[in-house]
């Protein structure tokens, strides 16, 4: 585990400087493997990525910093509703990538956000990097 992937209660790891100008992405995914794979792919492309396995921590981080993209999974359960409320409350909400199972086709409609891209499982990790580049450009 590195400083950009934290589990709930891990306070020893440093937080990136919120004043940086690089293109930044927040990932909230309870699957450490899936979130970590996406993070690694995006970091290899040059994006700054914060990856959280706990939705409460992701919401706290979102309150401290503006992100260009927030990517999260429908596996967040009830915590997803709070995250969506936080995103809707922003004056300029970030673009959203929603990772959903194939049978969750209505997931984007439930978000009520302007820019939502749904990535259905199973997917290739590189697809997410392609979508990010399309939404916010190369780093």
Tags for this model:
single chain; 139 residues; alpha/beta; 37% helix; 22% strand; disordered N terminus
Shape: globular
Q: Give helix and strand order, one letter per element, not per position.
A: EEHEHEHEHEH
Name the assembly state: single chain
Percent of residues in helices: 25-40%
CATH topology: Rossmann fold
Fraction in beta strands: 15-25%
Biggest sheet architecture: 6 strands, parallel
What is the CATH homologous superfamily assignment? Answer: Response regulator
Distance from N terminus to C terminus (CA atoms, Å) equals: 24 Å
Low-confidence stretches: 1-19
Number of domains: 1
Strand line-up of the largest beta sheet: 1-3-2-4-5-6
Query: By helix and strand content, what is the structural category?
Result: alpha/beta
CATH class: Alpha Beta
* CATH architecture assignment name: 3-Layer(aba) Sandwich
Instruction: Report the radius of gyration as a whole number of Å.
Output: 14 Å
Counted by DSSP, the helix tally is 5
């Amino acid at each position: 585990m590195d400083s950009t992937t934290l589990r709930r209660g891990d306070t020893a790891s440093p937080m990136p400087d919120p004043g940086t100008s690089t293109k930044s992405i927040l990932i909230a995914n309870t699957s450490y493997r899936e979130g970590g794979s996406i993070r690694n792919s995006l970091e290899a492309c040059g994006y700054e990525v914060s990856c959280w396995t706990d939705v409460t921590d992701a919401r706290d981080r979102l309150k401290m910093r503006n992100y260009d993209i927030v990517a999260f999974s429908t596996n967040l359960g009830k915590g997803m509703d709070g995250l969506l409320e936080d995103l809707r409350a922003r004056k300029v909400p970030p673009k959203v990538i929603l990772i959903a199972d194939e049978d969750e086709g209505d997931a984007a409609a439930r978000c009520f956000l302007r820019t939502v891209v749904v990535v259905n499982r199973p997917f290739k990790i590189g697809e997410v990097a392609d979508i990010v580049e399309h939404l916010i450009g190369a780093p």
